Amino acid sequence: GQDLAQRLFAARSADTARAAALTAGGLYLVLGVGPVVMGLAADQLAPGRADEAVLPLLASLLLSPAMAAVLVCTVVMAVLSSLDSALLAPAAVIARNLSPAGHQAGLSLYRRAVVGIGGASAVLAWWGEDAYTLLEASYEATMVSLLVPLVAAVSGRPGSERACLAGMGVATTVWAAHLVVGAEGLLGSDLPVGLACTGLGAVVHATVARWDQRGAVTQG
Q1: Which helix (H) or strand (E) holds 167?
Q2: Which pLDDT value is given to residue 186?
Q3: How confident is the model over 164-190, as pLDDT tens digits?
Q4: Contact 11, 20 (CB under 8 A)
Q5: How many Cβ atoms are within 10 Å of 184's Cβ, its own excluded?
Q6: Under a CB-based contact definition with an 8 Å cutoff, are residues 87 and 110 in contact?
């Protein structure tokens, strides 16, 4: 997510960023077991109601009204604390890329970028079907566009800039086209769009990286 990306981009060195990514990835897997356990518990504690919102369901079953209110407030604060990161992280990247001065971009440009990201987010929220669909699409977008170059960088074989951009561009474009038309599978097949586009991006990344390596050897 944006919180992890912010810390990685702020790292002092590539080794620090690589170690942070590996550590955070392991923690994500460990902490990700919690929601799965809660879902399984909800199915056992309230048979036939597991299709409802699991957290409010478990709160109503296991907590007093006062503690349930505390839990709801905690969840709301956790969500709100992530919103500023979700706005500031892409706004900072856009401002730095648009500014001729790079990291010396003026404050007004950052402000306009934040307003632009907020407006685009509002449009997407209005266009989306429901909160879960939007959340799923946001995670898929991160996986499709960033997973391959990040894994390549962590593994010590990042490839060229052109390979990264080509893989990200092709995967994101194909995924976005399926998202717009509402397709469930890649090109009408049973393959999940997100995973298939991520694999497509990996193939494009590896192919372009190999071409660049051959070109460098030939020129050398």
Answers
A1: helix 161-181
A2: 84
A3: 999 999 999 999 998 888 888 888 888
A4: yes
A5: 11
A6: no
Determine the residue type at 20: A
- Whole-angstrom distance, CA of residue 171 vs CA of residue 178: 11
Cα separation of 133 and 112, whole Å?
A: 28
Q: Which amino acid appears at position 104 of this protein?
A: Q
Cβ atoms of 197 and 186 within 8 Å: the answer is: yes
Which residues, in sequence order, are CB contacts of 43 under 8 Å at separation 6+? 50
The amino acid occupying position 129 is E
Per-residue confidence (pLDDT) for residue 129, from 0 to 100:
66
Amino acid identity for residue 144 in this structure: V
In angstroms, the CA 33 to CA 41 distance is: 12
Over the stretch 38-67, which tens digit does the pLDDT of each residue have? 878 887 887 777 666 777 788 888 888 888
Residue type, 73: C
Q: How far apart are CA 8 and CA 114, in angstroms?
A: 21
Residues 6+ apart with CB under 8 A from 201: 144, 145, 147, 148, 167, 168, 170, 171, 172
d(CA 116, CA 119): 5
